[in-house]
Amino acid sequence: MVEISSDVIRGYNDTMILFILLREPSYGYEISKQIRTISDEKYLIKETTLYSAFTRMEKNGYIESFTADQDPNGNGKKRTYYRITDAGREYYREKCEEWALTQDVIQRFISR
Hints:
This protein is of the alpha+beta class.
């Protein structure tokens, strides 16, 4: 089975994270789990990659973090949650447009 190279997908980790945060605020483990599920387990984001993305995107104003005393299921464990900002929504739209252009260009070099 062919695996996705982390070099290929690196530029789109932010896009995947923001896609999940468009729905609702979430925390690291849950975001990682959703990426694995949505990709049919074809992509497993490393914890260091995920938290580096959080740090970078928060610094750039695309997401913001907050601490919640319990998760939506009522569990009492404190967690750091992330939510998308308006700047993050705009960045997500830009990354989607970039992806469409990238696909168009690369598809010209793929033979089947």
